[in-house]
Amino acid sequence: MPLWLEPLERLVEAGGAILVVIALVAMLLFSLALERVWYFRITYRRARRQLIDRWTARPDHLSWSALTLREAWTRALIARLRRPLPWLKLLVALCPLLGLLGTVTGMIAVFDSLALSDTSQARSMADGVARATLPTLTGMAVAVVGLLFTSRLEQIIRREDQRLHDRLARAVEESHA
């Protein structure tokens, strides 16, 4: 094994197989987060500009059907921005549960090894408990960072929903001026 992977190998040995699962969930969570940043900065802004151009190109902006169409267009665009939120929330909620699973399986291993040994060594028990709690710490840390990103994304979506309505109204005013 390459030298630079040695600390990672020791971490997996210390935390068990559940730590690998938490790492995979974390990679998926942060990949979705990066995808959302990319989508917001590139794709969403282009789609927003196209929507504003399509709205201002319409001759009718005041009728009930025009306002309903505008609302449908904006909801569809915001829905695309909101699309991965349930998955992000699921992965955030899954991380602490996986950490708890790692702790429980680690504690079972600790008690099993203590039952097999003739002497009850406090030092080995403390070491086993420390190893068993590592997945919980990791799961909670990933969940906290994921929760921060998810709440920030929800805030951005709410702000963009309001801004999109404001921009559509301003674009119509500017085109009539």
TrEMBL record:
Residue span, MotA/TolQ/ExbB proton channel domain: 71-164
Keywords, alphabetical: Cell membrane, Membrane, Protein transport, Transmembrane, Transmembrane helix, Transport
Membrane protein topology class: Multi-pass membrane protein
Chief place where the protein resides: membrane
Transmembrane segments: 14-39, 90-111, 131-149
Location in the cell: Cell membrane; Membrane
Stated family: Belongs to the exbB/tolQ family.
Record protein name field: MotA/TolQ/ExbB proton channel family protein
Provenance organism: Billgrantia campisalis
Phylogenetic classification of the source organism: Bacteria, Pseudomonadati, Pseudomonadota, Gammaproteobacteria, Oceanospirillales
